[in-house]
Amino acid sequence: MPSRWFLFPLAVLLGAGVMGAAVAAFALLLIYPNLPSIEALTDYRPKVPLRVYSADGVLIGEFGEERRSVVRIRDVPDVLKHAILAAEDERFYQHTGVDYLGVLRAAYSNLVQGGKLQGASTITMQVARNFFLSREKTVIRKLYEVLLAFKIEASLGKDQILEIYVNQIYLGQRAYGFAAAAQFYFGKSLDRLSAAEAAVLAGLPKAPSAYNPVTNPTRAKQRQGSVLRRMRELGYLNEAQLSQAQKAEIAVRREASDYPVRADYVAEMVRQVIHERYPNDVYSRGFRVYTTIQSNDQKAAYAAVRKGLLDYDQRRGYRGPEAYVELKDTSEDALEDALQDHPDGDELHAAVVLSVDAKSVTAWRRGGQTLTISGEGLKFASRMLEERTPPNRRIRRGSIVRVTQDEKKRWTIVQLPEAESALVSLNSYDGSVRALVGGFDFNRSKYNHVTQAWRQPGSAFKPFIYSAALEKGFTPATIVNDAPVSVDPFLTGGQVWDPHNYDGKYDGPISVRTALEKSKNMVSIRILQAIGTQYAQDYLKRFGFDAEKHPPYLTMALGAGSVTPWQMARGYLVFATGGYRVEPYLIQRIVDDRGNLLAQAQPVPAGDESRRVLDARNAFLMDSLLHDVVRRGTAARAMSLGRQDLGGKTGTTNDMVDAWFCGYQPGIVAVAWVGYDQPRKLGSNETGAVAALPIWMSYMRKALEGVPEVFMPVPPGIVSARVNSQGLRAADGRPEYFYQENLPPELGASEAAARAREEVSNQLF
Question: Could you tell me if residue 119 is left (phi over 0), alpha (psi between -120 and 50 degrees) or otherwise beta?
Answer without folding.
Answer: left
